[in-house]
Amino acid sequence: MLTITDIRAREVFDSRADITLEVEVVLNSGKRGRSSIPTGCSKGKYEALEVRDNDPKRFNGQGVLRAIEIVHTLIKPRLCGMSPYAQEEIDGMLISLDGTANKSRLGANAILGVSLAVANAAAVQSNMSLCDYISRDREKFMPQPIFSMLSGGMHGDGNCDFQDYQVIALNAPHLEAALQVGKNVHMALKSILMARGISTGVSGTGGFLPTLSSNEQGLTLLMEAIGEAGYEAGVDVGLSMDIASEMFFKDGRYHLAAEGRILSTSAFIDYLASLCESYPIMLMEDPLGEDDFEGWTTLTQLLGGKIELVGDDLFTTNLTRFEQGIAMKMANSILVKPNQVGTLSETVRLVTSAKEAGYGIVFSRRSGETEDTSIADLAVALNATKVKFGSMARTEAMAKYNQLLRLQDVIPNAQIG
Fold first, then answer.
1. Fewest Cβ atoms nearer than 10 Å: which of 17, 224, 252, 415?
2. How far apart are CA 382 and CA 352, in angstroms?
3. Which residues are CB-contacts of 315 (< 8 A; sequence separation ≥ 6)?
4. What number is the average pLDDT over the span 163-182?
5. Of these residues, 337, 355, 386, 400, which one is catalytic?
6. Active site residue 31
């Protein structure tokens, strides 16, 4: 009988050279699976909690020795002897053992690390990719990539209010063509910035970091880069933004520090609508604050039939929050970050619910990423409509795009979407 014989956890470094958790599950066959867990820079208050050491003398308090101890002393004794194929049973045990609504006892990092490592071990044992193991012969498609180009907000050291300016290849017939569009626009943008004597250093998600005179200037720069790369904006390439409004939503108003303006929800919605009138914006992520429910409903009524409105902080990959959003008709798409919820099974249930409700599904990296490519496998296996892995600039992002290319090789007629 195939069983789990050992679970090992260790500290490793993420893409920001911060400490994060890696978990390895060993089977009695000698096969093993591994998972390393990313962490976000900007975090929604409703997402599951990590366990960190909070020791200022060690890695600025970000060490995960407590999480390692939890894996070794609380989780390992319960899982050893179980079949790695019993994913739902194992995830249910982890949830029950934690016993909190936000994973605060065991920590979402420890829980997800074990959950994904189990799935990876089972996939290795089955001589399958994680994608094939999870999909169970379900028809698979390539998700449409969203490419980061400019970073602002918490990702850009406050150079503007909005967190990410992105592009989407609109007519790419397959993944290679979409990646070529992303690369070409990224290089064109770099050339434009260099010609103006602007630094071309990049953020944690790979976007350039110019100081912008306004939030709108990020869009005008992307329009220029799209043209410089030989494409037509709105036809070949669309614009996308992670506005991350929760970062500047205070006291019921939207504080645009980069522009010296404070707007009511109504005025901010009008502002966003005007941007959509002026630019070929296809997607807005977190255009409003996570608890501005009335505003979200109004904005969805106004723009939901025209563009994709993605809830990240609004939903935090949380099924209860998402079901509330469905009932109130907020957003029409959901960002999926497995570490916001804690287990593979919960992620699958959330995606299933989103499909049934007709919402778009965008799998996303975190700003503190690792070389782990499991999220690429999950996105394809669960038929995500889009992925947000960053720009064409940093290794942790390229590892995930490269994994998509590998998966494409075994998907018949691997069109995007």
1. 17
2. 8
3. 321, 322, 325, 331, 334, 335
4. 95
5. 337
6. no
